[in-house]
Amino acid sequence: MYYYHFLPDDGCLRWGTKEKVKVKHTLILPPDVKIKLCEQGFHASKRAIDALEYAPGALACLVTLHGEIIHDQDKSVAQGRTVIAMADATNVLHEMACLCAEQALALIPNPDPRSIAAIKAKRAWLRGEITDVELTAARDSAWDAWPAARDAAGAAGAAAWAAAWAAWDAARAAARDAVGAAARDAAWDAARAAQNIMLEKMLHELLKF
To answer: For 192-201, how does the pLDDT look when each residue is reduced to its tens digit (9 = 90+)?
Structure first.
């Protein structure tokens, strides 16, 4: 089984030996070290969207886990981990943010022009056509439009929009917003499942796997 994991942009482990991670090289804990979720061992997630929530950087990895493995709802920890493929996913994650935002806007009858402009600005920035300052201005303008867009979209739109904004800056953590709990949870799960399919397809194309 393959899992997803994100490394810091320098490609080094954040903890322990802090060594440079290499493709096809297996990292293994000493046999006397016990694994523990969030504390000790090599972590990864079955879904790319879950791995993104813990990402310290944009270096995407497709990995296998070895030895003893403990599974949690959105991540697993193991005694060993091997990177099968690795690539800088910065542009993929920015494009993912644009796609998520477009999905959210599609649920709104009359989306705010500032939100549409922000997506166009992001793609222009990716092509090198505008500066960081111009991108920030477009993003700040779109952020001002967020409360009205959230209310117009309803539960499903709000969940998609929240995921899009979470990806917009850090391209990692998912932000839940304050709609009704039952509607929020159902909409959130559906939105994340759909976004995960999209993200995994994009990552597999990037990783050539």
So the answer is: 888 899 999 9
Closest C-alpha to 159, from 110, 87, 207, 101: 101
Among 150, 49, 25, CA closest to 97: 49
The span from the CA of 198 to the CA of 55, in Å, is 18
Any idea how long the chain is? Answer: 209
Q: What secondary structure letter does DSSP report for 16?
A: T
pLDDT confidence tier of residue 187, bands split at 50, 70 and 90: low
Q: CB–CB of 108/152 below 8 Å?
A: yes
pLDDT at 174: 33
Return the domain boundaries, the chain: 3-88, 90-207
Segment among 150-164, 177-191, 193-207 with least mean pLDDT: 150-164
Helix crossing, 146-169 with 181-207: angle to 10°? 40
* pTM for this prediction: 0.78
C-alpha 132/C-alpha 135 separation (Å) is 5
SS (H, E, C) 6-23: EECCCCECCCCCCCECCE
Q: Is 189 helix (H, G, I), strand (E, B) or coil?
A: helix
